[in-house]
User: Fold these one by one.
Assistant:
Number 1:
Amino acid sequence: MSAMPDVKHFDEAEVLTAVEQLFWRRGSAATGIQDVVTATGLSRSSLYNAFGGKDDLYAAAARRYLEHRSRPMFDRLAADGRGLIAVRSFFDELLRLRCSGEYAGWGCMMANAIAETPPESVRAVLSEHHAVLRKSLAAALTIAQGNGELRSGVDVQGAAEMLTLLAYAINLRSRAGATRAQLRSAVTAALDALAV
Amino acid sequence: MSAMPDVKHFDEAEVLTAVEQLFWRRGSAATGIQDVVTATGLSRSSLYNAFGGKDDLYAAAARRYLEHRSRPMFDRLAADGRGLIAVRSFFDELLRLRCSGEYAGWGCMMANAIAETPPESVRAVLSEHHAVLRKSLAAALTIAQGNGELRSGVDVQGAAEMLTLLAYAINLRSRAGATRAQLRSAVTAALDALAV
DNA sequence: TAAATCTTGGATCGATCGTTCCAAGATATG
DNA sequence: CATATCTTGGAACGATCGATCCAAGATTTA
């Protein structure tokens, strides 16, 4: 067998985390390759060699956001068998994430991306993001309905779509500076309206 | 008195409409001054002389969007004394605007702008946009409550905030390709949950 | 250690970015 | 019509855009 080549001098996942945060906070159009170079310490060669062009990098960062940030939350919601309280907990965590801590005011990378006319590779991630959230909410609401926690006549699928949209709007408005209390009043209104 | 200067050779409002649509559809970061020059037929000199730099142009376009697109709809909602049916009509019109016709898939310029880290001058417009919509929805809901159309115990202010967020999310998701039927199911779920 | 091969730094590409500038054009007053 | 003053077209600015290229560096196998 012939001699083996050199190996990468950096941790791909670690770099992708930094890139994810750049695109998350400022979007793709407002983030230059130079910003990525500066933030990661990598050279252009390494970047293009490892990830391809800017759109590929954007798509990889979006994919990572979905899998590492969104999916765990959504899966926890779907696996939480408590019914309506599971939904309340989900929104509590969302409000906490969006309005306090390290990422306060950043919104959701998926929601932000929608306003950006993203490349097709990213649109696929966004579509998956929406589907997973909706499905998780529907699962929790189905349990709530089985528990008799919902008003009679509530359409679980419609309610799931409505709460999915509510989550998107929370993401957006938190970026615009909406307070946690203001956003929580909307969550309370929605859930109280669904409950018996 | 001394001689008078030349006058503008174009209609400022007309130009601003074209600029508004550029920024609305593609956002600020993805729209170059060259795009504005091409779309309006003006020269750079005329643009900078009339409107100032890009951020000023963006702010002027946002202001125009608020006053000419959003405000008329919101005012109609606020002046519609029918109660809950007024709210339904508002969302019907919103769905029609976002999912069909000339501007289908464009979303709402105000919602799109939030994801862009807009300059302070634009943030002021966004803040006003939110306040006006919320107030109009609250007015309609107050009438609905007076009509006995709402469930007992519904907090009108919280419900108004919730429906405001729903409108934002409709704007966003319509841009991502959500169907009118899907979005309508969310509206129906929200309004049915509030109604007696 | 020599060879093979991938990775890396960094210069560089043409294109486009937002903005400025100036001479030429246009218009209302005197 | 002469004059003053604004507007306009269009060249040009330095900076940055995303992307490419190549020589030098690094690493594993033989």
Note: Residues 2-9, 42-46, 49-50 of chain A lie near DNA strand C (CB under 10 Å from a C1').
Number 2:
Amino acid sequence: MIDFDKLDKTIHEKGRLSIMTMLASRGEWRFQELKDQLKMSDGNLITHLRSLQKASYVSTKKELKRRKVTKYLLTRSGKKAFKEYLRLLEQIVAQGSS
Amino acid sequence: MIDFDKLDKTIHEKGRLSIMTMLASRGEWRFQELKDQLKMSDGNLITHLRSLQKASYVSTKKELKRRKVTKYLLTRSGKKAFKEYLRLLEQIVAQGSS
DNA sequence: TGCATTAACTTTGTGATACAAAGTTAATGC
DNA sequence: GCATTAACTTTGTATCACAAAGTTAATGCA
């Protein structure tokens, strides 16, 4: 039996899962890009980003070009946690379709 | 980009996902079996089962053998919804590990 | 210089829901 | 008849998603 308790709750929420998947598929994303792609409100997006940061899964790079810009990216442990999360998804897929 | 909005919320919750996975892997499970395997409280388990039933994903068979026994199983649309859910998980896994 | 605009927030409120604990019902077996 | 068990229901709490509106600080233009 799969140990569902190991499904990382921080990642498992739909909104954060979508953020993590985006960050995993490409290095850096700006706040606006994430917002546009995911069609989340500012408040919702920043809250999810904050909880991912709190878990040390996501870090930021601030740039001051023309406009203030914040880029978000996965940390090393964020990548690791996501990888482990995917590993469990694979198990679920494998078991579910048996 | 994966459409995360299509991730069925009824299934996506950890507790219910574990129930659905069990039911998908074997036809019928008794309340007690589910409870033992998943280590949920009565109240928690029945609540999740109720919301799965409300979504028409799960149905029951009542038996009156020695003791009152209720068996839970996936409905046709439950199987379909779960399959679709797994399909999306696969996409996430594929995209996430790229 | 000041006003509009934009990015990236923060604050606040609401509603949903996970979850546990304790109580209920109805059947069985001694 | 009394303890036990399965399968619930009820109730309360605490968490959390989410949206809406307000805030701050920087830029660009008139």
Note: Residues 60 and 72 of chain A are 5 Å apart (CA to CA).
